[in-house]
Every structure is written in C-alpha cells, then in structure tokens.
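Q: I have 79 residues here and want to know how they pack in 3D. Can you give me a structure?
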Amino acid sequence: MQNTDVSIFMGADELRVFTSDFFDKGVINLYDLAGKAVETRNINGDHTIINTSSLSAGSYIVRVSKNNRSEVRKVIVLE
C-alpha cells in the first residue's frame, strides 16, 4: 500500500478527512459525478468534518489540494 497524506472515513451523516501537515491551510472540494461542486472547506489542522446528511445517496469525488499538489478520492454516500 502506498503512503498517503489523505485518509477519508465515511460515517452515517459525515465525511471525515484526515490530512498531513502538508495540506494544512489547503482546501477540500466535494463534487458530484457531474463535476458540480457541492461543498468546499478550508483545511485547518489535521482533520475536517463535512456533514453529508443533505446530500443525495450516490458517489462523490473528494479533492484535497494545496499549491500545485492534490489528492483525489471517490466516496459513496448512503441514505
């Protein structure tokens, strides 16, 4: 398994994004599969929680970025 600076965990109504120090002061974007941004959060510290209770069930793309570096993950939101 490759070392990573981003770990993502889905809870019942929340998405927890854990990041390394590199991504501190970066940005988390959550997109639907059509490419529409549904949430944007600034990163402050080593983890960020995004409430997903208002999102429709389905697949989403999480992009964590800072400067010229980004990591992308796919997540599934259940009802």
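Q: Anything worth noting?
A: The chain has no helices and seven strands. The chain has a mean pLDDT of 90.
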